[in-house]
Amino acid sequence: MSYQTDLTDREWNLIRHHFEYENGYGNRRKHPIRTMLNAIFYVAKTGCQWRMLPKDFPPWTSVYTYYRRLCQRGTWEQVLDELNRLHRVQQGLSESPSFAIVDSQSVKSAGKGSKRGFDGGKK
Question: How many structural domains are present in the chain?
C-alpha cells in the first residue's frame, strides 16, 4: 500500500547515499531501507505512536530501533544540511548563509540596573 508520506523516486535518489552502507558486521537487513524510512516519515508526519504503525510497515520495534541509530549517528543532521545546501544552490545562493540574526531582547544584560522584573514569556 502507498501513503502520502512515502518517498518519491526523486526524493529517494537525493538521500539514499546517506542510508546505504555496509560495514561487514552484523546480520543482513530484514527490511528494505526505503520502507523503514517511509515508516519513520509516516510517524513524523501523522504524529501516530510507534506502536500504532500500520501493518504495511515493518514491526514498530525495528523501525524505532533504526530511527534511534540514525539519530545517534547524526544522519538526520547530515541529510538536512545537504538538502539545505542543494536548495540554496538551486535558488542561486551560496551553499551556506553569510550572516545570522540574533534576537537581542532575549539576552540578559550584564550591567547593573534597577529591578524591573523578569518576563518568563521571553524564554
Answer: 1
Question: Per residue in 59-112, pLDDT tens?
Answer: 999 999 999 999 999 999 999 999 999 999 999 888 877 777 777 666 566 666
14-45 tens-digit pLDDT = 999 998 876 667 667 889 999 999 999 999 99
DSSP per-residue string spanning 15-84: HGGGT----S-SPPPSS-HHHHHHHHHHHHHH---GGG--TTSSPHHHHHHHHHHHHHHTHHHHHHHHHH
Query: Does 109 fall in a domain?
Result: no
The CA radius of gyration of the chain, in Å to the nearest whole number, is 21
Q: Residue 68 is part of which domain span?
A: 9-90
Contact 43, 16 (CB under 8 A): no
